[in-house]
Specification:
Blueprint lengths: L3 E3 L11 E6 L2 E11 L8 E6 L4 E6 L4 E5 L11 E4 L5 E5 L10 E4 L2 E2 L2 H6 L4 E2 L3 H17 L4 H11 L6
Antiparallel strand pairs: 1-6, 2-3, 2-6, 3-4, 4-5, 7-8, 7-11, 8-9, 9-10
Length: 167
């Protein structure tokens, strides 16, 4: 079940977005197919494709209330370190450097980034220091050597465990 929230800023709605509109107690759900007054910001209205009516409707901003699906809250890491985002881009999270103890500073390529940019790149995976990963690899190799695996077999097992591929 989708939760819907009222959207005051119509400029954030894009073609292809699913929306709900409400007027005089009636509510319709549809997909935005056109932004009316695109040169205006915000646009003066949208056209939506309402499947249940099998037609397009022009929705004017001053006559309808607009609702969009609520976005789930983004949970960001709080431990300082180096992270990789969903696209593999490297970020650095610094400790609490502001008066607000809950605010951290995220940097990409050494440039501080606003929280809304950071949230749009989630999820993040913490990257280990090379020494930490090397210690794990060596422990794994040592364990496999004690179990008398051939070198080729040890290499295959450790490579699989750490996600090493030929690519």
């Amino acid at each position: 079940m989708t939760d819907w929230i009222e959207q005051e800023d119509w400029s954030t709605v894009k073609v292809g977005d699913q929306v709900r509109v409400k007027r005089n107690g009636g509510m319709l759900t549809g997909k935005v197919i056109y932004r009316l007054g695109r040169e205006c910001n915000p646009p003066w209205g949208i056209e939506i494709d309402v499947a249940t009516l099998a037609e397009y409707l022009t929705i004017k901003r001053h006559e309808w209330s607009l609702f969009v699906p609520a976005k789930p809250a983004v949970v960001l890491p709080t431990e300082p370190g180096v992270y990789s985002d969903r696209d593999g881009i490297t970020w650095q999270l610094f400790g609490r450097i502001y008066a607000d103890e809950n605010q951290h500073q995220w940097q990409m390529i050494g440039i501080p980034q606003p929280l809304e940019i950071v949230e749009s790149c989630a999820p993040f995976v913490r990257l280990e220091e090379v020494a930490v990963t090397a210690k794990k690899v060596l422990a794994g190799v040592s364990d496999l050597r004690d179990r008398r695996f051939t070198f080729a077999r040890m290499l295959a097992i450790v490579s699989e465990e750490f996600g090493v591929t030929d690519e």
